[in-house]
Amino acid sequence: MMGPGMEYGMGMLHPGRGPGGGLRAWIEQLGEEQRAAGEKILDELRRKRWELAGRIMDERAKLRDAFSGARIDRAAALAASRRIAELREQMFAAWLDAQEKLEALLAPEQRGRLRRQLRERFLQPDE
């Protein structure tokens, strides 16, 4: 049974929906020195996201348990749902941190291109 917050896969937890959340494509465009520094940023992001993903899975188990009795344990379901939302926000913040660190590696013209691409990717109107 799926409860609130359980419908999200790993890809739904952060921008880009893939390893690096859309930042990997930028790292691949960089020179060797910038690329090496960018890879370290993505490694740090990956470790943080997996740690948070594990905690989200633990909360989803609590949410599942809240729905598995004869009656829904409303307090437990709401608490788990809140914790999932908080962890998802932490995951998004980790992506933003990585994006800011990557921007710091870039020259002004590279930074401008990255900002334009991010706006195009995430601020497009719904179809």
What is the element layout, followed by pairings?
Blueprint: H1 24-28, H2 32-67, H3 74-105, H4 108-122
Helix pairs in contact: 2-3
Structure explained in plain terms:
The chain has 127 residues and is mainly alpha-helical. The chain has one domain: Four Helix Bundle (Hemerythrin (Met), subunit A), CATH 1.20.120. It contains 4 helices and no strands. Helix 2 packs antiparallel against helix 3. The longest helix is centred in the middle third of the chain and has 36 residues.
Q: Give the oligomeric state of the chains in this entry, treating copies of one chain as homo and distinct chains as hetero.
A: single chain
Any idea of the CATH class?
Mainly Alpha
Can you tell me the residue ranges where pLDDT is under 50 for at least 5 consecutive residues? 1-20
Q: Approximately what portion of the residues adopt beta-strand conformation?
A: under 5%
Please tally the β strands and state the result.
0
> What's the number of helices?
4
Give the CA-CA distance, first to last residue. 30 Å
User: What is the ordering of alpha helices and beta strands?
Assistant: HHHH
| Whole-number mean pLDDT | 81
In CATH terms, what is the fold-level topology? Answer: Four Helix Bundle (Hemerythrin (Met), subunit A)
By secondary-structure content and strand pairing, the structural class works out as mainly alpha
Query: In total, how many domains does the architecture comprise?
Result: 1
What is the gyration radius calculated from CA atoms? 18 Å
The helicity comes to: 55-70%
